[in-house]
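Entry — protein

Goal — fold tokens:
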Amino acid sequence: MEQTDNKFRIGEFTFDTFHEYRDGQEDLKKIECINKELDIHDPKVAVRLYNMIRTGEIVFKSPIGDKFYAHIADIVADKSVGLIETSDAVDEAEDKVKYSKIIGFGLAGLAIIFFAYFGVTEINEYISTNKMAELQAQKNYTKTDDSAVKDSVTNNEIATINSRVVDPSTLTVLPEYQSYLRQNKDFVGWIIVPDTQVNYPIMQTNNNEYYLNHGFDGKEDSAGIPFMDYRCDYVNPTTNTILYGHNMNNGSMFGELNKYLDENFYNSHKVISMDTLYEHRQYEVVAVCLSEVQYQDDNKFRYYNFINADNDAEYEAFLQTVKTLSVYGKNIDIQKTDKVLTLSTCNNYTDDGRLFIVAKRIK
């Protein structure tokens, strides 16, 4: 957390006092818990959640919570008009004893719907998790010592690595990745974030939507699999390499990147691994950001469209965007010569919300 100009920041939100800042942090954790346990885009879930916030069963204390409440209200308004009317009727009936049996049957039916829905979801996630476990079992993983990595390479060596241009025809696929490549030609590397479930193959194809709903085996899978933006070059890295992954309810894929919203976790988990087919790479996390998908007519910088900095102005626009959206202040330690890795996933703190982690190459 950084205090600048006597203000405290969490992403786009600014707080005048540390007490307000802590309220914002608590609201953010509460929202993450809700998103982890519930599908807020399910109309029935949205109505129930809306009523719980409205009646004070769930309490928020900051503008972050207010924005989330407004987001839930929008979902209810857009998708659940009929359910709102039903919910209002139930609210009125609760005040009248003669309707208690009707309410009881209604809640029992709703509970059956909830259990059926979450049961199917959990089965699908279970199958997906087992498939991934089989892939992970083929790869040995040793946890990296953060301090050892950061101290092992000098800034000049990193600059040399970042500036070199490699002929792909001269490279050899690493032994541990040859079997994966034989199984799927779209396989391009592996991403590991210590103390999370992020330990996955990385895919790349010319369609940025394919691996949103397909697994490593090419079969349809709602969990998808992490993939690299088709515009990025993993051999001679673009300025910014972007990886996308779903925020699954069970924490799989990029779901546990939410841990970086805890400042202690952020401070103690700065080094992550992103291998390519040909080499092992290490990156240092320099920013954790909250954003949202921009409409086409919005005159705002889109981090997910920043691939190569063609000039200083483009890089500065990216850096300023990261500073503005950073959860932990504006002291972002990246330079124009750095090669950047961005991990992007959904976050329901607002409509079309995004959480993205920015890291710079250090090995």
